[in-house]
Design a protein that fits this description.
Elements lengths: L1 E6 L6 H10 L4 H8 L7 E10 L2 E10 L5 H4 L22 H5 L7 E3 H9 L5 H21 L8 E3 H21 L3 E4 L2 E3 L4 E4 L2 E4 L3 H6 L5 E3 L9 H10 E4 L6 E10 L10 E9 L4 E12 L7 H11 L3 E8 L5 E9 L4 H11 L6 E9 L2 E8 L2 E10 L2 E6 L1 H11 L3 H15 L12 E4 L2
Parallel strand pairs: 1-6, 6-11, 7-10
Antiparallel strand pairs: 1-13, 2-3, 4-5, 8-9, 12-13, 14-16, 14-17, 15-16, 18-19, 18-21, 19-20
Helix pairs in contact: 1-7, 2-7, 5-6, 6-7, 6-9, 10-11, 12-13
Length: 445
């Protein structure tokens, strides 16, 4: 599965995300060409290379043209991540420089108007749906903060253009990169400062940012600037599946750095995006391995002991022949179990074998998902193992079922195996997931 992993080093904003995506492989010209499919005027988008903490990063500036005083604004209507007043807060209440430039009384766009604009664009359905989902989440957060409805949420003209370019641009980038799932680190935000809005002074992080990131891990810093903006929070809240475990194996394919505007002492003001492939079939778990060396027990007892261990709930149990000191032949009896069953299984080892001691160690295991499913075969409906590997479900005969059929029909076990394997190949079950033949029953350890 292809994923995008956002390493939120110093917060996240719309322009930083666009910069990181371009750095990770999205052709800038293609991004601009796709954005032109949006029936939107009054802006231009620029790209430049900057250095942050000796690391090369991409800085994207979205420059919105006001209807008057264009010469006064220039790049100030672009994004300036890290500036005291943020850089993209036309989200229903105009924060920062947009307010200070006197645009709060200009034309506004409603959420519904923005939705219709996206719907009317020539963008792909996937990009439209992703962008609409982000705007809906943003509008809901603004509605909650201001005690109004989504339909009544309005974005100032400058802020609306700003947000449209950022949000639709990110949707375009995710599509170009072929991203199937998004993850991130905890979201870093500034704190302790304030931001000026048309509604008055508001605390950092902005109320909409906090509302959007409810139930998502965040990390407050003592930096009194707006590190994470409402648009940045919208991107994470809408697209991310959560914080990714550090132990998940990731095959990195591309890396991009998106730069913010302000430079902080001791903190590189950038967003890192890692794009790569990850195998979500594998599952990690912690188990306990019990082992004991036995050299003085009647070997006829081993099958019974193994059966007792497995019936009690052991994940697995097995014997390994070994040669002990003085050339004495013996067996290592090994048991893999959950922590909760450890003492019960030790009790069986102590009572059912001649051992006088059991070794215990915590181990980790990575396994592919397995389950028992019911399928139709030439022997009738029967249980088989379903193993998921690389997104493909493979079904293989289950030993106990094959033995039952062999005994019932007086057939060689190997013949039963071959016929069931042939049935599975012919039905396509060996290489396709989710056919109408199977019904999930129990997990297979």
């Amino acid at each position: 599965m292809r994923i995008a992993f956002f390493d939120i080093v110093s917060g996240i904003s719309g322009d930083m995300t666009l910069g990181a995506c371009v750095g990770a492989g999205v052709p800038f010209e293609q991004l601009v060409a796709e954005l032109r499919k949006l029936p939107l005027e009054g802006y231009r988008i620029e790209k430049r290379e900057v250095i942050r903490s000796m690391i090369s990063a991409v800085k994207i500036d979205v420059i919105v043209h006001s209807h008057e005083h264009d010469h006064e604004h220039g790049h100030e209507h672009g994004h300036e991540h890290g500036h005291e007043h943020g850089h993209e807060h036309g989200h229903g209440h105009e924060h920062g420089h947009k307010h200070e430039h006197g645009h709060e009384h200009g034309r506004q766009r409603s959420y519904l108007e923005i939705s219709r604009l996206i719907d009317a664009s020539g963008l792909s359905d996937r990009v439209k749906q992703t962008a609409l989902s982000m705007f809906l989440n943003l509008a809901r957060a603004e509605a909650t903060v201001h005690n109004t409805t989504v339909e009544e949420v309005h974005f100032h003209e400058v802020g609306a253009v700003d947000s449209l370019v950022d949000i639709v641009g990110v949707a375009i980038c995710m599509d170009i990169l072929g991203v199937e799932r998004v993850y991130s680190t905890p979201v870093r935000t500034g704190s302790g400062g304030t931001v000026r809005t048309q509604h008055g002074m508001m605390p950092i992080p902005a109320p909409a940012t906090v509302e959007l990131l409810k139930d998502y891990p965040i990390e407050l810093t003592d930096i009194p600037y707006e590190l994470t903006t409402p648009t940045g929070a919208t991107i994470i809240a809408t697209l991310s599946s959560g914080v990714m475990e550090r132990t998940v194996p990731l095959r990195v394919q591309s890396i991009g750095y998106g730069a913010g505007t302000k430079e902080f002492a001791g903190l590189p003001n950038m967003l890192r995006l890692v794009v790569g492939e990850i195998d979500f079939d594998a599952q990690d778990e912690r188990l306990v391995l019990l082992e004991t060396n036995i050299d003085d027990m009647n070997p006829e007892l081993y099958p019974y002991v193994l059966e007792r261990l497995l019936d009690t709930g052991a994940r697995d149990a097995w014997l390994t022949p070994v040669l002990m000191k003085k050339g004495r032949p013996a067996h290592v009896l090994s048991v893999l179990t959950d922590e909760a069953l450890r003492d019960d299984l030790i009790g069986i080892l102590m009572n059912e074998t001649t051992t006088t001691g059991v070794r215990m160690q915590s181990v980790s295991r990575r396994k592919l998902p397995r389950e028992i499913v019911r399928v139709a075969t030439s022997f009738g409906e029967m249980a088989v193992k379903a193993i998921t590997r690389g997104g493909v479900v493979t079904r293989v005969p289950e030993f106990e079922e094959c033995r039952r059929i062999a005994q019932e029909r007086n057939l060689p076990l190997i013949e039963v195996y071959k016929r069931i394997e042939s049935d599975l190949r012919e039905s396509g079950a060996a290489s396709s997931a989710g056919t109408d033949m199977n019904t999930k029953t129990t997990p297979q350890e």
